[in-house]
Amino acid sequence: MKKISFIALLFICSISFAQTSFSVKFPSSGTLDGRLLLMLSKNDQSEPRFQILDGHNTQLVFGLDLDNWPSNQNKVMNVKNTLGYPIEALSNIPAGDYYVQVLLHKYETFKRKDGHVVKLPMDRGEGQQWNLAPGNIYSKPIKVTINPKTVQNFEIKIDQTIPPIEEPKDTKYIKHIKIQSKLLTEFWGRPMYIGAHVLLPEGFDEHKDVKYPLAIFHGHFPNDFDGFRTTPPDANMPTDDYSPRFKIYGYNKIVQQEAYDFYKLWTGPNFPRVLAIEIQHPCQFYDDSYAVNSENIGPYGDAITYELIPYIEKKFRGIGEGWARFTYGGSTGGWEALAVQVKYPNEYGGCYAACPDPIDFRAFTTVNIYKDKNAYFYESDFRKTERPGYRDYLGQLTATVRQMNMRELALGTKTRSGQQWDIWEAVFSPVGKDGYPQPIWDKKTGVIDPKVAEYWKENYDLTYILKRDWAKYGEKWRGKIRIYCGDMDNFYLNNAVYLAEEELKNLNSPAYEGEVDYGDRAEHCWNGDHTQPNYISRLRYHRMFIPKWVEDMKKTAPKGIDLTSWRY
């Protein structure tokens, strides 16, 4: 990378430190809407845009909104109008050498059905990743030496555009579906699409009269159907690649081997013949919609349940009844698997929720949104102790709730970061007067809004809703709720599961007759398998839960239903 001192490249938008500024030249393209991000890294192991993280290894980012900004005019970012992470003020950047990059995360204007006009990033096939979104413009990294004691001006030219992403291609076993949703199109005031990757059972073409149950895997944005591979692992794949998360070498080859093993099971003689799907439903706030209806995101729950799933069942000979569908997934997908079973008790015949996002808001990770006054700090007269946000299996803390939220605020205001805390807020909150989600807490101070918390409770606190509505829907939910979580979940999600289990066990008329299980010292993604390490079991959702559900449905399916014609 080329080292520069003063004005090295053209740049018209100015980004100022105390005595240091960065000037960026945009491509001539009319007016610009979006989040302008300045990133600085102390290393060149990868581009700065890929090094903005929660935890100790993050590099620096500073953000500023552009609103109808003329692309041929300067823009100044200074201490007064920018916010950064993990250093909040531009003036506090230490002297030294940095690799610098600028990126504009583009927004579009939406005129929603509710009358609000909002500017948000549209997903462009990448699953709402600001550093990978096609059409976003950015600069090549350059090396600079910053000395806050002198007046400096560095000029950077934005001359790169992230290219489009190629759609996956159909194969014998995997088909790709995309439909325009009438419900979502009406809500957002422009064509909106949802889709799925469909894994067909062995013998699908030969058994043309058979109708199949539907296994619905929920999770983050899937580029294709995950964990299915018809060929052995690549023979030339290096085995010295290291996974920092799992602390093992050769993990990529393990992933390929597991996918190939699943293919052999899927096509073997004893695996249940079902349709399996992974849904694509990215929204303007995240890589998926959380599969429920929301004031801010729209009727994704209805669109998936009443538009997408019936379309798939009709096209691929699904049975098309609630007892013949089940949901499963982990983390975000774990919450969704339980949420749709709760929200649509007649439409799904069982859920397997692994390491789910908070299912009880008395333990919204480490925050009780109903009793705590501040999400970032424990209440104290004399000291400020921050609430933990991320830990390892030994309890070592690497990020706090405040730090994680400050990263998101630097990446996007008005709940537009595309990150975890913001999607929870976008899904669970009512619409604010400005058309954006009402904050559950002040993003800078952490002060909780009790009125918003009450709205969350009535609409999305799954434990509360189960208890509140058990007399009405208990017979529909009985025997269909199964939850799994490691007791050292990195995001403290087990705390909500403890509370949910206590409530479920106290339900009666009928008893819940489900399952809650915990993995000893298991971190995030534990899904109920006590026989395998986490790095293996997280790759086995399909092979674990499809056979399990087929057995469990014998107890939950209506009497007299055909459970054998698809077991060829």
Automatic annotation (TrEMBL):
Q: Which organism is it from?
A: Emticicia oligotrophica (strain DSM 17448 / CIP 109782 / MTCC 6937 / GPTSA100-15)
Tell me where on the tree of life, at the top rank, the source sits: Bacteria
Keyword Lipoprotein included in the entry's annotation: no
Q: Where is the signal peptide?
A: 1-18
UniProtKB keywords: Signal
Q: Which InterPro entries match?
A: AB_hydrolase_fold (IPR029058), Esterase-like (IPR000801), Mycobacterial_A85_antigen (IPR050583)
Q: Which Gene3D superfamilies match?
A: alpha/beta hydrolase (3.40.50.1820)
Q: What is this protein called?
A: Esterase
